Amino acid sequence: MGKRFRGRGRGRKHGPPSKRRKSDQLHLSAKQKKHFKAYGDFHPSESSDTVKNYTRVEDNAETHNEEDSSSSDSEDETPVQQLLKAIGVGSNTAGEVSEDDDSKEDDSEEEEDKESDLDSEEEEDFEGDVHDKDGEDLDGSDHNEEGAGIITGSDMEGDTGEASHGEENDDDENELTAEASEEDCEDDDEEHILKEDDPFTVHFEQDLPETLEKKLSATTVWSKKDTKLKFVGDSTLMWKDLACVPQKKLGQKDLKTAGVKHKLVDQVAATNIKEGKVDVISHGEIMTPLQFGLFGIMNNYQDLFYPRQSHSNLEEIRLTYCLHAVNHVLKTRSRVVAHNAKIKARRGTAFDANSSQEFRDQGFTRPKVLIVVPLRNSAYRIVSVITSLLAASEQGLVSNRKRFKTEYGDEGHDEDKKGLKPEDFDALFKGNTDEHFRIGISISKKSLKLYSPFYMADIIIASPLGLRTVIGAQGDKERDYDFLSSIDLLILDQADVFLMQNWDHVLHMFDHLHLQPRESHGVDFARVRLWSLNGWSKHYRQTLIFSSVMVPELMSVYNKHCHNFAGKVQVHRKSTHGSVCRIVVQLPQMFHRIQCSSITSLADARFEFFVKEVLPQHKQKDMKQTLIYIPSYFDFVRMRNYFKKEEISFVHINEYATSKGIRRARIDFNKRKAQFMLYTERVHFYRRFKLRGPKHLIFYELPQYGHFYSELCNMLEDPRRRSLLQQIL
């Protein structure tokens, strides 16, 4: 076997020789080998052409490794090559051919490298489009060089992980790409689902005439009609233009024909059972009759005031408005994605140059749904319902879930609660009861990203206090309310609890809805709806108010801040036997009528009547241990100052008192060291004390919650005393 000769190659250190190297090996005949072994040279009869055909000269290509080049130099300096160099046989021709081959192969390899780089860049760009078109990255982490895969169980908890093998990452990339392309196809298909009679299209894709807008903005009285809505009950329908009121029948049970995304419909029954604890499958339905009735109103995009909320139907109502909110967000997103595809398809064409068609499908900012709830536990339940509706938890497409469970979950928040409390108290204050929070949520078809920045979020869930700290007050340097400029759907859940917090925060929020943004926030004004540019967003916004009571403050918001051109629906409260029937103590009850000229003078008239007519009767020695229940904190402060001024023996318990102060006041009152106790409604709402020692009870004003009346009256039960007195102003 002859010796192998090779030129200076590319300096590869590892791996088998390439095909090009194998072809470079020199093959000699037996005669040539024998002569070369004996004389160290070829026979003179050997033609130079023959030698040229089998000999490869040195390649002058640069090496990438100095060690390889030095070893190849010593190895290549053979007698044959020295001879060829001396006589110049075939040095040019063979060298040119070799260099051409090398250059061609180098070019082909470079082209392959470029193509692979382009392919990887295209894949990365495509993945970026998948995430960026929703303004989100599902796992909240940076993609590694190997590629990002579908979120695993650890990733959805906010942790980041890398695949152990590149092949696994490639498979995940393919799955993600397939899912994204499938999602885009579904979006294209769903573009056709949004027909002209779809409630979303009817409400948001029409421009009101200017005459109608003036009519809606005018202080004219709303037309009213009492009606009985299917599955809802007695209600009042209000409108300013009857032609704008949707004529679709309410209470229909086929959600798919009502324009609800089919994938959401498929998850409603399971969500009802899992989150709402409502067994609807046994009745052959996916929702309860109440849910069908309420969703019919919501799906018509009419305003709704529902004052029949209770701890028993709380989850039913929550699932209903979550379904409506997610359906609205997905429809908005489908519209935008479909229009993006149309714009991209016609870009640079003659049709694009001559077309005057506009795709106005956006507002000034991205947030479309604002859900205001009083406590963190309510926000936690809402996110759980939305996750179940999207089936995101099953596929692991929920980002920042671990952080969310830590900050909003129930774990560790019920350990300090002592004593037996009423059922409604346990339902409201179960879990995390913090009142200061806000969170942005971005939604795609099957994924949910928590803690999205407000301007990248579709849904904002917040408390009144959480919004107030962001909105700020006039004169504050750091304040922001532009994210409220394009809210299509406003939901006030458990609105009666807002009255126990700070009602001014709610009014402050309404004052900053749909104001002109101070910054553009990257909006494409060519895509902004005309009615948003005209400042008519308040006439398109749908407002849903759910409460367990009907009080003047909520009615004022409903009448003053709800301007929906599609009309609004106010549900009547049911006639009940009242809280008086739940009083188990036999006691006389005296009701006083107060004369006043106007509602604005009622507070002063009530105070004067109390000081002159009621208080003197209870200053007597036989009227000790009188409990005075005061709903308003302002009235409490006024009463406390008066008692101090008149040096009347009293103790007081209010929501700002310390636990030590409350304990001391209860002991002094029970031991008759104080004749009066001033007791605010808010502290009773949050603590539900069962006071000991009161023999007489004065309601300075009727409580906001009817069941508080019977709770307080039943505190007067004392077997040693049968003569009890209760007075109500």
Automatic annotation (TrEMBL):
Cell location: Nucleus, Nucleolus
Domain UTP25 NTP hydrolase-like: 301-569
Biased composition (Basic and acidic residues): 55-67, 128-146
Key words of the record: Nucleus
Keyword Nucleus attached: yes
Source taxon at top rank: Eukaryota
Full protein name: U3 small nucleolar RNA-associated protein 25 homolog
Sequence ranges assigned to domain UTP25 C-terminal in this UniProt record: 580-719
Record-linked Pfam families: Utp25_C, UTP25_NTPase-like
Family affiliation: Belongs to the UTP25 family.
One of the GO BP terms on file: maturation of SSU-rRNA from tricistronic rRNA transcript (SSU-rRNA, 5.8S rRNA, LSU-rRNA)
Record's GO cellular component terms: small-subunit processome
Signal peptide range in chain numbering: none
Main location: nucleus
Residue segments, region Disordered: 1-190
InterPro entries listed in its UniProt record: P-loop_NTPase, UTP25, UTP25_C, UTP25_NTPase-like
Record's compositionally biased regions (Basic residues): 1-22
Coiled-coil residue spans: none
Biased composition (Acidic residues): 68-78, 97-127, 168-190
GO molecular function: rRNA binding; U3 snoRNA binding
